[in-house]
Design goal:
The chain has four helices and five strands. With 136 residues, the chain is of the alpha+beta class. α3 packs antiparallel against α4. The chain is globular.
């Protein structure tokens, strides 16, 4: 796999953080777990249920030595996230995410979650602007 990085950009490979000082292309010659900096979610940005789930799956990927702890957190957070949504697209996506995480494919799970961010935003903004009616 060929990767191109800009000067100052970071990449997370097998739990190590690398920063390049100039534009560079690298080729990964074997299987490696990696995440590009522009796909890394900072803890302060984990402000919605799906972003929180993304952050936990990201931890599984970028810190293999703590993956067991992150997987335990994932299980609890996943269950809570399922209870949060009824949107069909999100529910199907979450099922795929669980299968991928349990099949040791966290990178693929991150792609699915990222793809659901826009749907989540729409669902959450609709819920805020149309709160359920309460009986008086």
């Amino acid at each position: 796999m060929h990767l191109s990085l800009k000067a100052g950009e970071r990449i997370f490979i097998n739990g190590a953080v690398l920063r390049v000082d100039r534009k560079v292309s690298i080729e990964l010659l074997n299987d490696a777990t990696f995440l590009l900096e522009n796909h890394v979610l900072q803890v302060d940005d984990a402000t919605t249920p799906l972003r929180q789930l993304y952050f936990v799956v990201q931890a599984i990927l970028v810190d293999p030595s703590s993956a067991d702890k992150a997987l335990a957190v994932f299980k609890d957070l996943y269950a809570a996230t399922l209870d949060t949504f009824s949107n069909k697209e999100i529910m199907l996506g979450l099922q795929n995410v669980a299968e991928m995480v349990h099949s040791n494919r966290p990178f693929d799970a991150l792609k699915v979650i990222r793809g659901l961010f826009a749907v989540e935003s729409t669902v959450l903004s609709t819920n805020v602007s149309n709160p359920p009616h309460q009986a008086a």
